[in-house]
Amino acid sequence: MEVIETLAATPDTAILWRDGRLLLLDQRALPRREAYLALDSAAEVAAAIRDMVVRGAPAIGISAAYGVVLGARARFAEAAAGWREALAGDLELLARARPTAVNLSWALARMGGLLARLPAGVDPAPALLVEAQAIHREDVEANHHMGELGAALIEGPTEVITHCNAGALATGGYGTALGVIRAAWAAGKLTQVLADETRPWLQGARLTAWELQRDGVPVTLLADVAAAARMARGGVGWVIVGSDRIAANGDVANKIGTYQLAVAARWHGVRFMVAAPTSTIDLGVASGRDIPIEERSPEEVLSCGGQPVGTPGVAAWNPVFDVTPAALVDAIVTERGVVPAPDADKLARLMGAPSRP
Ligand code: MRU
């Protein structure tokens, strides 16, 4: 993969389609190094998702959509007659890249819907590119709308805590949780943002802090273990996070550590907001128990910033997401509206689906 270091990197342009290639800002290297990787195949996109070059639920879905364009272009060039069948392997590779964020299968299903309608014998790539760019653009628009809706819930001035990175980097641009935070900051409702560092990948320390600093939003890093103590001191009005998948009953899967933050928030009377587009809501899973939770290598826990920190030979458990029960969520903010105290009926109504019995 070609590395491009000459492009000015911004959080809002972490995913770029340029000259028929997908450029991804390499999030593994931030903030130390700002470099893009240029991808030319669906297999490279799947590897970039698996290896965390691009991460965050909506960003994974958008990247996969562009991956379909790259795959279809290559398969059509190989065989104008049988490209659709040949593409099935690429779609499978992309779908398997990471299991928890439903935005990945959502985006692939949307691209698949178009694929099924395209005529045989005609290059499918141009039409697929239009669809991938629409998915990308609609995500940014949804984030701006969620930002307004979420910010309206906040009575300032207050501090807020966020976890992981649910910012521009994790989406098509602007961010979900950080979109709310950006809008609330612009409205003068925030005194500062407390960002959990988010072990073991340090998305908070590396990515959220980088984004907020560039936006001029005051940010203070917290070790994950310090969040409850900070709530106990007072002054924190909300915890605001994103999500990788929301079950039909309102249970929320998000970065490991979110659940304990929600428990601590309820104990301290701090309110808990989840900002996520409807592409993150999966009515196909009844509750959080049915959400597949990715487990990654123990090495990620046994090291920190690339340095070994664990006792050699000791085991480590590394689930990278957890599930916060709906009962601990005060509001889910989507581009279609706010769902206070989410439950199955409210989410079904939001999604225009019949309620489950
Ligand atoms: O493992 P990651 O970095 O992909 O996890 C990302 C998160 O958990 C985010 O909080 C979530 O995807 C919401 S992003 C808008």
Which labels suit this protein?
357 residues; alpha/beta; 4-stranded antiparallel beta sheet; 11 helices
Task: Provide an overview of this structure.
By secondary structure, the chain is an alpha/beta fold. It is 40% helix and 19% strand. The protein has eleven helices and 17 strands. Strands 7-6-5-8-11-16-17 form a seven-stranded mixed sheet, sandwiched between helices. It has a four-stranded antiparallel sheet with strand order 1-4-3-2. Strands 12-9-10-15 form a four-stranded mixed sheet, with helices on one face. Helix 2 (57-78) packs parallel to helix 4 (102-117), helix 3 packs antiparallel against helix 4 and helix 5 crosses helix 6 (177-186). The termini are far apart. It binds 5-S-methyl-1-O-phosphono-5-thio-D-ribulose. The site of 5-S-methyl-1-O-phosphono-5-thio-D-ribulose has 17 residues, from helix 2 and strand 10.
